[in-house]
Design goal:
Layout: E1 16-17, H1 23-32, H2 38-49, H3 63-72, E2 73-74, E3 78-85, E4 92-98, E5 103-110, E6 115-118, E7 122-124, H4 133-136, E8 139-142, H5 145-158, E9 165-168, H6 178-189, E10 201-205, H7 209-217, E11 223-227, H8 233-239, H9 248-262, E12 266-272, H10 280-292, E13 295-301, H11 312-316, H12 322-334, E14 339-341
Helix pairs in contact: 1-2, 5-6, 7-9
């Protein structure tokens, strides 16, 4: 890959965007400006470990080289426009603007033992899942690897606790932005990267079977979460139009392959919707599925979409009551299924699961 082809980089004033480059690409860049290959390792360290905001901070490089970098390259892909913090649970929603003027959101979810960052991979989302606000805002474009990484870099810089986990569960479908998602994962898995272990990164997908298989074949050890939400083709199709193109059957075959190839547990994400996927037959189907694939079920309360003024099916969806959710989870546990009941965080700032959206 040549420098000009690197991942969606759209330099301003003919400058090259370094953030988002792999080490090999950094070596190519430094070679193109007459520098030795070891400069790539130095730059990688400053960009991804120290997360510096300027070339002037790269103190083991000469003043002349730093001046050359200022003339030829860029470091920052995003600007933090707003930070909202939940008064209830401390979740923080970050509004970013890209260099091209697009807006995206990320969410920091604090817990006692960890701090999870939910990052976006697209500006908007093309999938139109009926329980998700992001689909209601439409789709603008894919993010490049630098923009995905910068969400982490900025969040780590401004939050009082260290980020310990990353989930690709923000705006967009990561596997529809496959190249840049994988590139970001490779940055985190590089042996020089001293930040978050790639084993503490989860990629969430609504289901693109060929890309699930391709992700398994990369050799990366990140975890996979699958937006299941129903074990029945017709019901899943009703709330997830993507199921018309990629059936649940195809996806489950791909997920089985992923689980075997990577030797990892799959997380089945399950938003509880009243009368749609909270029935006795849904419990029975989930048990059967979890016995087929090494997995756990992540039960998620349905969060309101009122802030997006939805219509159609999205306006009709109702949450399963908490009492029924608890009974649903207990029935699964009685069958020795591993179940995690996710607590809603950030609902008061429209930052809960499925609520991320920007009204253009």
């Amino acid at each position: 890959m040549t420098i000009s082809e690197t991942a969606g980089t759209k330099p301003r004033a003919n400058k090259i965007m370094l953030k988002g480059m792999l080490r090999d690409e950094l070596k190519e860049f430094f070679g193109s400006i007459g520098e030795k290959p070891y400069r790539a390792d130095q730059a990688f360290n400053w960009i991804y470990n120290y997360r510096v905001e300027s070339f002037g901070a790269m103190m083991n490089m000469s003043k002349e080289l730093r001046a050359k970098l200022d003339e030829t390259a860029e470091l920052n892909t995003l600007t933090l426009e707003q930070k909202q913090v939940s008064a209830i649970d401390g979740a923080a929603k970050l509004l970013f603007k890209t260099n091209g003027g697009n807006l995206i959101e990320s969410v920091i979810l604090p817990d006692k033992s960890r701090v999870t960052l939910c990052v976006s991979t697209q500006v908007g989302c093309p999938l139109d899942c009926k329980f998700c606000a992001t689909g209601l805002m439409g789709y603008k474009r894919n993010l490049h690897s630098g923009e995905i990484f910068d969400q982490y870099a900025i969040a780590q810089r401004i939050y009082e606790r260290p980020i310990t986990n990353i989930v690709f569960m923000g705006m967009g479908e990561p596997l529809l932005n496959f190249e840049q998602t994988v590139k970001t994962l490779r940055i985190f898995s590089d042996e020089l990267n001293k930040g978050i272990s790639h084993k503490k990164i989860t990629v969430s997908t609504a289901g693109i079977p060929n890309k699930i298989i391709e992700l398994a074949d990369t050799g990366l050890k990140s975890k996979l979460a699958f937006s299941l939400h129903s074990c029945f083709e017709d019901r899943r199709e009703m709330i997830m139009p993507i199921n018309k193109k990629y059936s649940l059957k195809e996806n489950l075959e791909a997920i089985e392959y992923f689980s075997r190839k990577t030797d990892t547990w799959i997380t089945f994400e399950y938003v509880m919707l009243k009368g749609i996927n909270d029935r006795a037959e849904d419990i029975k189907a989930l048990v059967k599925l979890c016995r087929r694939i090494k997995s756990k079920v992540n039960i998620i309360p349905f969060n309101s979409l009122e802030h997006m003024n939805p219509d159609g099916i999205s306006a009709e969806l109702q949450p399963t009551t908490r009492e029924k959710i608890d009974k649903f989870a207990d029935k699964l546990r009685e069958q020795n299924i591993s179940v995690f009941l996710r607590n809603t965080q950030g609902e008061d700032i429209d930052a809960a699961c499925g609520q991320l959206a920007i009204k253009y």
